Amino acid sequence: MRIIIIANGQLCQAPIVQPGEILIAADGGATNCRKYSLQPDYVIGDFDSLSEQDLASLTSSGSHVLRYPVRKDFTDLELAIQFSEQLGADDLTIYAALGERWDQSVANLLLPLAYPKIRFRLVDGAQEIFYLSDHSLLQLEGQPGDTLSLIPLSGDVTGVATHGLEYPLEDAILLYGNTRGISNVMLKQHVSVSIKQGVLLCVVIHSAKKET
Question: Which residues pair with 127 in a beta bridge?
Fold first, then answer.
């Protein structure tokens, strides 16, 4: 099951929602949805970013509103992820997870690590973020000239192998905190990254803005 989550950060593009996909707005993410005439299936949060009039309008137009107390242990985005997991999601695309608040942005970048059974993709304009964990392979699509950066998230990442990049890696080690994996270049439309052990953040920067 694939679910799209719209968060309350900066939304740099119109989200792409395919037929059959579930759309969830995390609190003020409903405002982001409204900008692009999208009707969320669910709206989740403590609603400190939405008025009662906003909620009434969402309910009357068919959205399911799930309210949580202001004093809670999780952010609205994490509540949306937890609810997606309850629905059976194994594939999540999140828009507007990043913004002006660094604490929220860093927390949102790390959130997928707490839900290893779900495939995550974070979209921010021309940039896409993916995650790789132990003994996994990631196939990426782009254009020659697009940038791909690989950033270790959980200590050193071992057995890194890439194909289709200007600076190839073969059974390499990317050291935690080291910048060796930054700003590689895609030579083909389809490239691959695999690792043996660790958690790797993969950032694709498309040279021409791509809405997928």
Answer: 124, 205
Q: Is 84 part of a structural domain of the chain?
A: yes
**What's the domain range around 177?**
130-205
pLDDT digits (tens, 9 = 90+) for 165-211: 999 999 999 999 999 999 999 999 999 999 999 999 999 999 865 44
Q: Which of 81, 105, 125 is the last residue of a domain?
A: 125
Which tens digit of pLDDT belongs to each residue from 74-114? 999 999 999 999 999 999 999 999 988 899 999 999 999 99
173 plus 160 within the same structural domain = yes
CATH number (domain holding residue 12): 3.40.50.10240
Evaluate whether residue 155 is within a structural domain.
yes
Specify the pTM: 0.91
